[in-house]
Amino acid sequence: MKTLITVMFFLSSASLFGQAQKEVEKDSVSNKTYDNYIGVSQMLVSYNEPIKQTDLLTSVEYVRKFKKQTLVTRINRIDFIQQKDYSLETEFYQKAGKHSYLFLNASAGLNKKVFPQYNLAAEFYSLAFKRVEYSLGYRVLHFSSNNVNLVFGSLGYYYHNYYFVYRPTVQIDNNKGFLTQIFFLRRYFDDEKSYLQLDFQRGNLPYIFSGIGDIGTLKSSRFIIQAKLKLLQTWYIKPFYMFEKEEYYLDRFRDKNYFQIGLIKQF
User: Fold this and answer.
1) Which own/partner pairs from 215-222 qualify as long-range (CB within 8 Å, at least 24 positions apart)?
2) What's the rounded Cα separation, in Å, for the pair 4 and 79?
3) Span 48-90, pLDDT tens digits
């Protein structure tokens, strides 16, 4: 049985670094530069099949921006079916040109009960024609009994305050490919840091690996609404809700609800 791991880091967003670079520039009101962020978030996942269950995921992160690099360090804790586990995670963004950058990600599970032993990823982003952003990447998740290999990319388009993204992800298993498709539309507000985003996802790759049966044959559909909203001069709140129709056994589906709230302090 495969272990449970969170995969929100590559399913929820397409271009994390491109927008993060904008967000650590100057504040649109005070014209002050912020190079540091501290964030905390908590996600609650509830479902009733095959048993009534509530899972909890908590994350704390620190972001530091340099001239051509951005470094993210994060610790995650998950409470899942009376099991607790922690993981340490880091993300590194390196500018590779005026309109391109490289994203690197690595994490390791501490107890190796829920999180994978390690996961490694790399993705290259580039901007073309001033409005079109594209990327291509690869991720490997290592468990004690198997590896999960993912190939993914994105194609995004900027139009005024709107950002539309299509992001396919292919899980490679026994020389077969299982496709998950992700679409999202983001609307930026006046300060360029606040936004409202709608997502639709459908495919075989679970939002959270449940480890039940053959992952490649199980299908899910998801609808997400999320936002980042300014509270005070240096504080932001990030609400998140997702409804998922998940196939947890072959031809057996359940409804899952995801609620998340996050706080960010920039300085």
Assistant:
1) 215/2, 215/148, 215/171, 215/173, 215/178, 216/171, 216/173, 216/176, 216/178, 217/178, 217/250, 218/246, 218/247, 218/248, 218/249, 218/250, 219/247, 220/244, 220/245, 220/246, 220/247, 221/245
2) 11
3) 887 788 889 999 999 999 989 999 999 999 887 777 889 999 9
- Chain segment 87-116, per-residue pLDDT in tens: 999 999 999 988 999 999 999 988 877 788
Give the three-state DSSP class for 212. coil
Q: Which residues are paired to 230 by β-bridges?
A: 236
Name the amino acid, one letter, at 7.
V
pTM attached to this predicted model: 0.84
First-residue to last-residue Cα distance in the chain: 44
Contacts of 197 by beta carbon, 8 Å cutoff, 6+ apart: 184, 185, 186, 187, 224, 225, 226, 227
The amino acid present at 253, given as its one-letter code, is: F
Structure token digits, residue 31: 């014209």
Other CB atoms within 10 Å distance of the CB of residue 200: 13
Residue 53 to residues 86, 95, 104, 119, 212, Cα–Cα distance (Å):
20, 43, 34, 27, 15
Which candidate, 228, 167, 169, 173, places its Cα nearest to that of 22? 228
